[in-house]
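R.M. (postdoc): so does anyone remember the format we settled on? I'll just put the structure tokens first.
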């Protein structure tokens, strides 16, 4: 028996649809037009949820790009261990001495001994005149601090050498104390009196972090941010700090000073190296968080140390995390020193 032609099924379906349309279409349209409190309420609720979600996402987007300066309070377990020196709370001038190496000595006659310094390979060929520059940076930083009662001296530099058990900053502080620089007019004793307006910043891995982390450390010590910043370092690094690091941090030029001290010998190769390995890379990568400069930071952090400044200097959290795909894009979020302009 042959199957029925397909056209017969189509005819039946067509007749069924015509039957449905003629008998039920008006009733369906009537139901669709009928107002329902439940349906209208559901639409209002859904619309409200959509608006809340939309506004929340907008807030998240804008807060991510421009974090607020609303104060953050660290946990009580941390605060209970901190008692700030009240005499330091009104300090306003930050003096930074970036570290370049680690002194391992303990006696004054070891200060210029090359064997008492943990140096990079490129630093070893310079002789004692390079070490003399390190010592002069320390001396000048201390002198500036002693002349200004509103200043806080910060030696900055992390545990950057695998051969050392201490940091650049701590070794600079030990050298200054060993030479009696904080009390030049007092009689030398085996135990120098404590000098409260000098401290260390022990996490920085490069010059940009020397600047940024010292600002955060100043806040840890005083509870405020400095009105004036003075950095003592190599003259050949002046452009790097003035043109690049200060710009990246948006610190006002009229509140910033760089004091350059060069080695006694004319080291042209060092100046060429500064342009090639310092100024030029930072000009392309302002925040030092990509490729070449990031690799240098990793190489200088053999002990996997990391800082606490997200909690202790919360106003800088956005800046601390700023690493744009456009490597020359300047941070556009709020900063404590915006009010200085």
């Amino acid at each position: 028996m042959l199957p029925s032609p397909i056209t017969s099924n189509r005819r039946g379906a067509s007749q069924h649809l015509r039957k449905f349309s003629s008998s039920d279409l008006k009733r369906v349209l009537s139901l669709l037009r009928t107002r329902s409190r439940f349906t209208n309420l559901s639409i209002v609720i859904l619309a409200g949820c959509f608006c809340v979600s939309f506004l929340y996402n907008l807030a998240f987007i804008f807060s991510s790009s421009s974090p607020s300066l609303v104060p953050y309070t660290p946990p009580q377990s941390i605060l209970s261990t901190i008692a700030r020196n009240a005499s330091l709370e009104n300090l306003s001038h930050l003096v930074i001495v970036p570290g370049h190496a680690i002194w391992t000595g303990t006696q004054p006659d070891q200060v210029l001994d090359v064997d008492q310094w943990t140096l990079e390979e490129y630093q070893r060929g310079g002789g004692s005149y390079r070490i003399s520059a390190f010592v002069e940076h320390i001396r000048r930083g201390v002198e500036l601090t002693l002349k200004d009662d509103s200043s806080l001296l910060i030696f900055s530099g992390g545990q950057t050498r695998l051969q050392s058990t201490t940091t650049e900053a701590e070794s600079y502080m030990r050298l200054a104390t060993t030479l009696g620089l904080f009390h030049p007019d007092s009689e030398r004793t085996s135990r120098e009196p404590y000098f409260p307006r000098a401290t260390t910043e022990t996490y920085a891995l490069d010059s940009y972090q020397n600047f940024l982390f010292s600002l955060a450390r100043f806040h840890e010590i005083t509870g405020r941010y400095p009105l004036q910043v003075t950095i003592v370092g190599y003259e050949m690094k002046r452009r790097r700090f003035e043109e690049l690091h200060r710009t990246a941090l948006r610190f006002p030029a009229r509140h910033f000073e760089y004091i350059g001290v060069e080695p006694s010998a004319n080291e042209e190769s060092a100046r060429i190296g500064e342009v090639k390995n310092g100024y030029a890379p930072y000009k392309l990568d302002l925040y030092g968080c990509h490729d070449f400069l990031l690799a240098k930071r990793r190489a200088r952090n053999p002990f996997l140390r990391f800082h606490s400044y997200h909690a202790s200097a919360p106003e800088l959290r956005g800046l601390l995390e700023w690493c744009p795909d456009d490597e020359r894009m300047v941070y556009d979020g709020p900063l404590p020193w915006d009010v200085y302009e």
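R.M.: ...and that's the designed sequence above, right after the tokens. Also worth knowing: Residues 6-18, 60-66 have pLDDT under 50 and may be disordered. The chain has twelve helices and seven strands.
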